Amino acid sequence: MDFEKLEKRAYEANVARSQNMKLEAIKIEAEILKNMTENQFLFPVEEEVLMTKNSASFVYKNSKTYPSLLEFIGRILHVDIPIKLNECKIGPGGIIISAESKEQAHKILHDCCHELQILIKAKKGHID
After folding, report:
1. Torsion angles phi and psi, residue 55, rounded to 5
2. How far is the C-alpha of 4 from the C-alpha of 35, rounded, in Å?
3. What is the residue extent of each domain of the chain?
4. What are the tens digits of pLDDT across the range 36-85?
5. How far is residue 46's CA from residue 73's CA, in Å, rounded to a whole number?
């Protein structure tokens, strides 16, 4: 999944909404939802995990952030950023997970991304 493209399209949708171009925004957002739900959804994070006590921190690959995409996800799911899902906190600076080991952190990250994809899929066709 091309997260850079998703970020760009989410930014374009935000601009369209702010300029009262609702139909254009809805079209772009439908495209984003299609991409996010038809492919494996897993945030692009660096392999190295920073472990402290019972917490694991992931940073996005190449020090990227995805503020527009996260804003879009937060808006359609009616949640604040960072997006809190089970043991995960997903924000533009990275992802923090409650875990006791790197292996557990990677599994929880995968599970949270899958659950997030299911929640997003439920919003398909319901963009306003």
Report:
1. -140, 140
2. 12
3. 3-121
4. 988 888 999 998 999 998 999 999 999 899 999 999 999 999 999 999 99
5. 22
> How distant, in Å, are the alpha carbons of 1, 18, 24, 29, 88 from that of 15?
23, 5, 10, 12, 29
- Number of helices (H) and strands (E), helices first, in the chain? 4, 5
**What is the strand order of the sheet 94-98 is part of?**
50-52, 55-58, 94-98, 88-91, 83-85
Q: How far apart are alpha carbons 58 and 36 in whole angstroms?
A: 20
Q: What is the pTM of this model?
A: 0.88
Assigned token pair, 54: 């019972």
Whole-angstrom distance, CA of residue 44 vs CA of residue 47: 9
> In the numeric block, which tokens belong to residue 33?
């939802």
Q: How far, in Å, CA of 114 to CA of 119, rounded?
A: 9
* Inter-CA distances, 126 with 29, 76, 109, 121, Å: 10, 9, 26, 10
For CA atoms 77, 73, 71, 113, the dihedral sign is positive
Between the alpha carbon of residue 81 and those of residues 31, 65, 111, the distances in Å are: 22, 13, 19
